[in-house]
Amino acid sequence: MQFIHKTFVAIVASMGLTACSLMSDSLEDCPQGLNVEFVYDYNVERANMFNDHVGSVTLYVYDQAGQLVRTQTEDNTAASQPLRNPNYRMTVDGLQPGEYRLVALANQRSYSIISQLPGVRYLRNGENGSMSNLNVTLANQPGQQAATAITQSLDTLWHGTLRSAQYTQNPITRANAPEMVAAQTVTVRQHEMTKCVVSLVRDTKRLHISLRQGDDPAHCDIADYDITIVDRNGHLLWDNTVDTAEGTPDVTYQPFAKWNTYYSRTTAQSYDERPANDDNVEETAHADIDFNRLMLRMGDSTVNPAILNIVHRPSGKTVATINLPEILSQGRGAFERQNYSAQEFLDRAYDYRLDFILVGAQWRYILLEIHNLPWSKRFQNVTLE
Known about the structure:
Layout: H1 2-14, E1 33-39, H2 50-53, E2 56-63, E3 68-75, E4 90-93, E5 98-107, H3 111-114, E6 119-125, E7 135-141, E8 145-146, E9 149-150, E10 157-169, E11 176-182, E12 186-188, E13 193-202, E14 205-213, E15 225-231, E16 235-236, E17 251-253, E18 257-264, E19 269-271, E20 281-291, E21 307-312, E22 317-323, H4 324-328, H5 342-348, E23 351-359, E24 362-370, E25 376-380
Parallel strand pairs: 1-13, 9-17, 14-23
Antiparallel strand pairs: 1-4, 2-3, 2-5, 5-10, 5-12, 6-7, 7-8, 7-16, 10-11, 10-13, 14-20, 15-17, 15-21, 18-19, 18-20, 21-22, 23-24, 24-25
C-alpha cells in the first residue's frame, strides 16, 4: 500500500496537480490560507486597471466576529514593482480554518510614505482591533485634524471588498453573464489555499472646469473666479460609507491648479499665453479640483448634496450654484447599454469635465464630458434673463 500511495502522488505531480488539493491526511506541510487577486474593473471602461493604476495595497483580514487577525501590505518601489505583474496575487499563509471577512485599502504610492507627508492626506484610523473601527479621514499633517479646506491634489484612494461570481441576465442583451457581487465571507479550509477576489472602487475624483464668455470671448481670466465644492464627505467608514453623522465637518475643496489658455481665430492656433498684436483672441479660464467620493443623497433633507459654487470676484456675483452629483450623474447617458444607476455611475467614473459658457456673471449653458469620450450633454440655464 505504501508503494501504491507514493506512485499515486508521483502521477498527480506529473499531471501538474497538487496532492494538497486531493488528500487531507498527513499534509501538515501543505500551504493553508488565502490567495487573493485584486481587481479594479469597477470603472466606466469595465477593464481591470489594477496593475496600471495601483501602487500599494493593504489587506485587512478579520474573523467572522469582525476582529483583526492579519494585516498584509505590498508596495511598488523603484527596485521592485510586483503589483504591475498581471499575474500578481497576495498570499496570506497560516490562517486557521474558518470564515474570514476582507477589507482592502489601496493608493498610488506606499501608505507609509503618504502618511508622513505634510498637507491633507487620506489617513487611516483604527487599523487594529475591530473591523468597525477601520476608517479613513482626509486630515491635515501634522496634527491629524480633520480637514475642512483642501487646495491640493489628493493621493488616489481605493477601497476593496470581497466579491464572488453569480450569473445574472443582462437587461439589454438578455444573455446570462457572470457579474461580480459582494460576498460576506471567504472560507479557509484545512490544508488548502483558497482563491478569492477583492474588488476595488476608486473614491478619489477629479473635475476639470472651463469658463468662457459668450458675449466677450476675449476676456475670461481665471483670477476673477472663486471655485469651490462643498460636501460632507471627508470621512469614510470601514465599508466605504460616507460618514455624515452630526458633528462631521463639511469639506471645502478648491482648485489645485488654475490657468488660462488662448485661441487665435486669426491663426486658428491655441496658446498658453496671450499672443501679442492679435485682437482676435478668445480667452478660456481653467481649474482642476480633486475631491472625495460623491453621494447622490436624493430626498435626504438632513445632509446637503455636494454643491459646486462659482463666484465672479470683481462683481461679487454668484455665477453658479449647482448640485454636483446630480449633474455629473447625467454622464451615465454615455453608457446606456450598461443601465447604470446614478450612484453606480458616480462610483465608477472618476474624471469629469464641465465647460461653462457665461453671459456676464451668469452661465448660459454647461457642457458635461466624461473621460474624454466623444460624448457630451448640454444643460441650458432656463432662468437666465
